[in-house]
Amino acid sequence: MSNKEVKAALKSARDAIKNKQYKEALKHCKAVLKQEKNNYNAWVFIGLAAAELEQPDQAKGAYKKAIELEPNQLLAWQGLANLYEKPNQADVKGDLADVYQKLLELYESGDKQKWCDVCNKLVELYHQEKKYLEVAETWQKLIRMKQEEGAEKAELHQLWKKMIQLLKDSTKNQDNKTGQLLLTAFEHALHSADTVPGEDHQNLYKEFIQCLSKFPHEVARLEKACDDMMALYPTMTYPLEVLCLHFVQSGTLSEKALHCFSKLLEMDASSGPGIIGFGIKCLKENKYKEAVKSLTEGLQKTNQCPAAWYYLAEAQMKIHEHRNAILSCNEALEALGTPEGPNLRWKNLAFQLKAETLIKIADADAAEEAIKALEQIVDGSSDPVISSLRGQAYLNKGLMDQASKVSQELLLSHPDMAEAHALEGFIHYSQKNYDQAEKSFLNAIERKAGTAEYHQYLGLTYWFMGDETRKDKGKALTQFLKAAKLDSYLGSAFCYLGNYYRDIAGDKSRARGCYKKAFELDETDEESGTAAVNLSVELGDMETALSILNEVTEKARPGTAKWAWLHRGLYYLRTGQPSQAVADLQAALRADPKDSNCWESLGEAYFNRGSYSTALKSFRKASELNPGLVYSIYRAAALEQILGKYENAIATYQQILKKTENYVPALKG
């Protein structure tokens, strides 16, 4: 086949392809290849024809052969790109990207429009594959190309905005380089915006700040962006809110942070981040009740702030609202998810605070939960404070050997640590080794004098010590007073002071004041509530007694606060108000249906109200629960007599006299 014939055959092949006679084209090409096996155009035409005949492998092989022969010729690369772009081509995205890269190289010095088209396709391909770094780098090349061509500012602005759109999902699994390219795109887009200030520019700034807040290491850039936006848009609270949340989450309370909190509240008194900031300020100033109030309110408006939940838990812990503090710790942990970097510190702090709070609850279930929380702390095993908490949890759970082991190890490795000596003191105290407990608590106080709990336990140690020199309980009083002074929310310290003034000093009025304070601090403290009511009655101050009982019963859920219902019911019974007495005694029985004395009192209230049948049932119930209640059996007999059930009454009287021969009321009956 001569050179002229080869050309004619290739022309026939091209015409056949034009006319969609692909098999015909293949014949012509094969004829050419018999003569010239390295003919570039013949291989390209085979690729084209095979692709149209749905023979992708043959097409791919032909194009690759052509590329091998002429690596810098466009036709084969274009053909390969078209082949890979077909919808039926699977697993070729990596190869297609390589083809696009080569096409960019070949178009660079020639057809700029085609270069841009391929560039767009390559970016789209990388974006589908979530290869964000490649997306960013390729798109930047496109922008550079446009800049070199002298593109208008408005066109460049749109290109930077498109780059932001392409990369906005990349912050979820961010590598630093992609992150930097995204932030650069934001900065360019902001600088190239047309109308400044304007709505689009404002929204773009918000997005930029939102994006920056996801980068823990871009603190300076975030602060600058917020400051710049505030300068441009002085009436907008958004940059201030972001800045406030940033300060909260960073855990620093600088002058600038405090200024931001107050400025934000001036602009918008109902702003969640502003109220949270104010709550943290209160916490640092030891205004714990105000802190709890503000943080709770702020979190209702801005709940996705793990650090704020932690601060709320801390404030609740300070006022001994232990159950609430645990709930807040759980909220913080849930909001943190599986954190890295700075958030890992918050997670460790939240688990530690949760464990401390559970230990204060001091029952076995809470202790088990505390041990689990401590196990979640990263690198917690090497922290002596965590070890001392673990020791306390073991002690609360009744695992004395484990607690003692932790205590001994801590005293050897950290002899100057207050918590190590306190743990030893708690162990001795629980075993009633008061002399050793005294030494341990004194050692702990020597190292950390400001801890109320150590003084309280030393006071209790003196209270229960048996030797003669301790009988005046004066040393115990000193320690209880110190504990109450160091922690004015420690209800139990005031309860112990009440015990001292009531049982040792005989000062009922002062004792009543202490019990009242203890009960105000902890409304679940029945001992203090009961003592405050009883002492008020003894002091003839029924008004105070009733105000305490009314406050408790108003707040009480059904089936709770038995002591308050019972006390008020008995008061109404004594003062001739049987209907009120019935209602309160019924409420007390809902809390404890097996209290025979309460049933007896209820019977008395029904009797005084004239409800004899119901009174009879109540007295019978009392005697069923406690057959030794002779008075209830007698009252049942007397009621049977009143109701005309004489035979029953006689039988009941005889039953009493069998047990108690000389029980006069029964003899009279």
TrEMBL record:
InterPro entries: Ski3/TTC37, TPR-like_helical_dom_sf, TPR_rpt. GO terms for biological process: RNA catabolic process. It holds the Pfam family TPR_16. Keywords: Repeat, TPR repeat. Gene3D superfamilies: Tetratricopeptide repeat domain. TPR repeats lie at residues 40-73, 562-595, 596-629. GO terms for cellular component: Ski complex. This is TTC37 protein. It comes from Nesospiza acunhae.
